[in-house]
Amino acid sequence: MTDQPTPSADGAAPDLATLSFEDALRALETIVRRLESGDVPLDESISLYAEGEALRKQCAQRLADAEARIAKLTIDASGAISGTQPFGVD
């Protein structure tokens, strides 16, 4: 298994929307390692940076979407669930 997403038949990287959060994060980590190594030519570094930024945005959006779906259950004094409220709201 590789650290990077598998290119499609035409050689292009897969659509970000089709990547799972975990695959997008792994691809982003691979890009960061390559850039930190200092062994990447400038033009490729710029391309990798742009790809990494797109992956970062995708991961951030997936996390925001997941957080929006998480509801904190509100339990009343009798122990019954009385409703829900958004995650992080007390």
Features:
single chain; 90 residues; alpha+beta; 2 helices
Structure, described:
A hairpin with a 5-residue loop joins strand 1 (71-75) and strand 2. The protein starts with 20 loop residues before the first helix and ends with a strand. Helix 1 runs antiparallel to helix 2. Helices cover 50% and strands 12% of the residues. The protein is of the alpha+beta class and 90 residues long.
Overall domain count: 1
Number of helices: 2
Low-confidence blocks of residues: 1-11
Mean pLDDT: 78
Distance between the termini: 43 Å
What helical percentage do the residues reach? 40-55%
- Biggest sheet, spatial arrangement of strands: 1-2
Structural classification: alpha+beta
Determine the strand fraction and express it as a percent band. 5-15%
The tally of beta strands, per DSSP, is 2
Main β-sheet description: 2 strands, antiparallel
Order of helices and strands: HHEE
Radius of gyration: 19 Å
Shape: elongated
Topology:
Elements: H1 21-37, H2 42-69, E1 71-75, E2 81-86
Antiparallel strand pairs: 1-2
Helix pairs in contact: 1-2
